[in-house]
Amino acid sequence: MISKITAILAKEITSDLRNPYTLAGSGLFLLSSLFVCYIAAKRINVVATWVALFWIIILFTSFNAVAKSFVSETRERMLYFYTLHHPGQFIASKMIYNGLVLIVLSSVAAFVYSTLFSMEINDLALFAYGVVFGASGISFVLSMLSTIASKAGRNLTLLAVLGLPILLPIILVAITLTKNAVDGIDWSVQWKYAFVLFALNVVCLALSLVLFPYLWRE
């Protein structure tokens, strides 16, 4: 199973290296959004505003970066993958890859964002935890919804309509966790938010493993 997942991950990496325009476009969109925010507001003094704007940028970047996961796959290629891979291994590999991509983009965003809008982060480890699991949760949800959009005529509007309500709990918990990390609130208060964010990631992954085989056979 590990070898199959590794093979699919290698295929995804090779495919993006051969055609880097999608990832480059996502990176350009991210940096452009950060720069526009900096031009519009050169300084943000309120922590809640700082954190909310950061996650808004991550959210829209994720739609740009993860939406291509299944929508860009042709029917012929999906039929070929159907003959080679187990559906659970295939969706798990896609979600892991998309998660890694969005974590990297989110890390870059956090570095550039904190540089442009100087804000003291009192608990850097907790902030990193919130960014990593918030980004991975968003990517897991969008990876699964991308399969549904691909079955509905590659309708990206459907992806946005379905995605925003489902992503709301992850976004709210991630915002709370990262805001408290910036404020330096003790871990004794934070552990419940950290657990909920981790649990949402696990639930999203588990539901995708259960539901994807039904879409796989269509």
| Residue fraction in strands | under 5%
- As residue ranges, the low-confidence spans are none
Q: How many E-type strands? A: 0
Shape: globular
If helices are DSSP runs of H or I spanning 4 or more residues, what is the number of helices? 9
Helix content: over 70%
- What is the residue-averaged pLDDT? 80
How many structural domains in the coordinates? Answer: 1
Distance from first to last alpha carbon? 23 Å
What is the ordering of alpha helices and beta strands? HHHHHHHHH
Largest sheet data: none
User: Helix/strand-derived class?
Assistant: mainly alpha
Radius of gyration (CA) equals 18 Å
Q: Characteristics of this structure?
A:
mainly alpha, 218 residues, 9 helices
Please describe what this structure looks like.
This protein is mostly helical and 218 residues long. The protein has one domain (2-216). 86% of the residues lie in helices and 0% in strands. It has 9 helices and no strands. The protein has helices at residues 2-18, 21-40, 47-66, 68-71, 75-84, 87-116, 124-151, 156-183, 187-216. Helix 3 packs antiparallel against helix 8 (156-183), helix 6 packs across helix 9 (187-216) and helix 8 runs antiparallel to helix 9 (187-216). The chain is globular and about 55 Å long. The protein starts with a helix and ends with a helix. The model has no long low-confidence stretch (mean pLDDT 80).
